[in-house]
Structures are given as structure tokens and as C-alpha cells.
């Protein structure tokens, strides 16, 4: 379990924790953190003194800042008192601003190799890797790596306009931007970052890092690793590994093959000169 502020920019807590059979996420938290709740006990209003900027505030003083939690890479669909902890789960709490256009992050990369090994609520639907432009080698390299990390039922096939939102399995789409930019599904997902949680775009020959409102941060990179989902508690999210060119795509694939700590506690990452920068860019 780990706890952060501002989309993973600042770490508060990061430890492996034990639990007892029947424990909820809330039970586990109460033994290790200072918790205050609201709305009947299922809503975490404060962790270690950092409180919601919205709950019980007047319309003149309230700010849209709250605690959100993700299990195995998907934002939870239930309160922390209703999700039963399972062995191997990765639980991430983050305190961040959700103002602007209503910032949402349905799926995140920060629990990798979840959700491909085990997803939300123990889901193991398998994974399909779609590749564009004949990048069979990269897809096979990634498939082998996922299997070595414990993922089951991993396969790959060429991308030919398959649905990226109506999945029955986890999905990964890899390729270069020039190969994918004309696809209508890709265009739609990248056009609404505050809805999809993909806080980057490809313009003017660069990957542009966005802030939580979907605005440009002024920072750029060469490749993107990002995730999206259809809503709370999604068990079949879609990930994107997209580079400006083949070397950048190779770097994105390499981030999953040998992740180190590049992805942990991140909504998504943009690779810039070998450095993985978290997106959205923290305020």
C-alpha cells in the first residue's frame, strides 16, 4: 500500500502490509494511518491530517481536493470499507485536485505489473497486445515479459481498428504515433484527457505533457505509457505504449519489460531523454 499527494508527486507512505481474512481496505488503513471518514464511514475524508478540501466546506471556501484510491491499477468502484483486501493487491491512495474540467483517472500505470497479473477485485481476464506497423518483435518481447511476471493468457495480434473500450480482456496498444493518429478510437481517447486520464498529446513532433486540467505544461518527451478505462472498478483497462519513432517505442516497451520504479505511483508517464516523468504534471 502506498499513499501520495498530487498524482504521485510526493510520497507519504509506502510499505508492504499484512492483513487478516475479511479485512477491508479501511481496516488495513486504520492500523497504519490516521484516518477520518465521512458520508456514513465509507468515504476517507482525511489521511494523516490531510483533509478533503470539499467535504463540509462552504461554497465560498471549498476546493475540489480529495483522496482517491486505486486497486491493482483501477480506481475503486466502492468505498474503502466495502473492498475486501486480497493477497498481492496493490492499493494506492492519492490526494489531488479534481477541479478544472472534472479531472478523472479511471486507470493508472502505477501498480504495474497489475492489472495484467491480477486486476481489480481479483480479475484475471487475460491480455491482448495490439501492435501497429508490423511491430511484432516488440509485441512478442512484451508478451514474454508479462508471462515471466505471472500474467496468464497473453497473446498478440496486429491492430486493425479493434475496439479499445469494449474489451473482454486487458488490452495494450503499441506503435508509433504516425501509425495510430488517424484511428478514430485513438483520436477520441486522446481528445478528452480529463475523462480518459490520458494526460499527454502528440503535437508538433513531440509528446506534450498535460496538467490535471488537460492544459499544456510546457514539457515534452518522446514516448508515452498511459492507461484508460471505462469507469470505476474497471476489470479490463486499456494501456498505450506509443513513441514518436521506433526507438522511442522500444523505450516505452522497455519500461514495462524492465520497469524498476519508473511506473510506480504514476497515473501515466512520458519518457524524455531516458527519464520517466509522471503525468498529469503536478500543480
Notes on the protein architecture:
There is one protein chain. The chain has 283 residues and is α+β, with helices and mostly antiparallel strands. The protein folds into two domains: 2-97, Ferric Hydroxamate Uptake Protein, Chain A, domain 1; 120-279, Chitobiase, domain 2. It is 17% helix and 32% strand. The chain is built from six helices and 18 strands. It has helices at 25-30, 136-148, 177-180, 184-191, 193-196, 246-257; strands spanning 2-5, 10-14, 35-38, 43-47, 50-51, 65-71, 74-75, 91-97, 127-131, 154-158, 170-176, 200-203, 206-210, 216-221, 223-228, 238-243, 268-272, 275-279. The protein has a seven-stranded mixed β-sheet. The chain has a five-stranded mixed β-sheet with strand order 2-1-8-6-7, with no helix packed on it. Strands 3-4-5 form a three-stranded antiparallel β-sheet, with no helix packed on it. Helix 2 links the parallel strand 9 (127-131) and strand 10. The chain is globular, with a radius of gyration of 18 Å. The mean pLDDT is 94. Residues 22-96 form the Transcobalamin-like C-terminal domain. It holds the Pfam family DUF4430. This is Transcobalamin-like C-terminal domain-containing protein.
Give the helix tally.
Answer: 6
Largest sheet: 7 strands, mixed
Q: Per DSSP, what share of the residues sits in E-state strands of 2 or more residues?
A: 25-35%
CATH fold-type name of the largest domain: Chitobiase, domain 2
Structural class: alpha+beta
General form: globular
Q: Measured on Cα atoms, how large is the radius of gyration?
A: 18 Å
The H/E string reads EEHEEEEEEEHEEHHHEEEEEHEE
Low-confidence stretches: none
- By CATH, the architecture of the largest domain is named 2-Layer Sandwich
Helix content: 10-25%
Strand order, largest beta sheet: 10-9-11-16-15-17-18
Tell me, what is the CATH class of the largest domain?
Alpha Beta
> Could you tell me the number of beta strands?
18
In total, how many domains does the architecture comprise?
A: 2
- Distance between the amino and carboxyl termini: 24 Å
User: What is the average per-residue confidence, as pLDDT, rounded to a whole number?
Assistant: 94
